[in-house]
Known about the structure:
This protein is 24% helix and 22% strand. By secondary structure, it is α+β, with helices and mostly antiparallel strands. A hairpin with a 2-residue loop joins strand 2 and strand 3 (59-64). The structure holds zinc ion. Zinc ion binds at residues 246, 248-249, 251, 266, 268-269.
Amino acid sequence: xxxxxxxxxxxxxxxxxxxxxxxxxxxxxxxxxxxxxxxxxxxxxxxxxxxxxxxxxxxxxxxxxxxxxxxxxxxxxxxxxxxxxxxxxxxxxxxxxxxxxxxxxxxxxxxxxxxxxxxxxxxxxxxxxxxxxxxxxxxxxxxxxxxxxxxxxxxxxxxxxxxxxxxxxxxxxxxxxxxxxxxxxxxxxxxxxxxxxxxxxxxxxxxxxxxxxxxxxxxxxxxxxxxxxxxxxxxxxxxxxxxxxxxxxxxxxxxxxxxxxxxxxxxxxxx
Length: 271
Ligand SMILES: [Zn+2]
């Protein structure tokens, strides 16, 4: 599943091809994504110029002159910039055609992604309103986390994955960040010390930053905007390493289930 680093990698990959170009069409081959793409959408977009390509949480925001396209990659989606006449593959659902002769093509076998159009401030859209801060921005710090955690009995790993607390820390990155910070994922959020939150903020930034620099994680079938796999999987310390020795202390990495998701941690390194 594309997580924040994959979405950010996609944004960086597609932005140069989009910015400043005019839209010449929107070809819809399959409208039935998580929410159907509105039939009238192509007519609204044609002729508009792309101002910028931004991101909020795992949503790509393609800013046009009179509104914003909100695109989500769902469980299995990918967006690539291709020549408009590039041969179609199975599950190629829409093309956003550009005056450069290229297109932004969306492929998604499971169709959990979306393409929505909003006029006005996209931050106020129901999908984006209420989201917590971005993990790589300054607002996300130990003071903020400690304030949000006060009195909370939920496990710190689930707290960290709550999009209202901070966006984009998915399952892989939560396990890896807690490992690097030396924090037991089972500890109640309200009982995590300020010092541990300081380490956790640093770890979240490092883990996500490294994954973005490496172009997203090579997990299963993810490919980035150029079609190349990311290279983060070989740097995972605990994720999907249950039963194997910890790379730092040699203790056996444990796998448990929290909130129906697998958590991996090292009992030797995480207290
Ligand atoms: Zn260890």
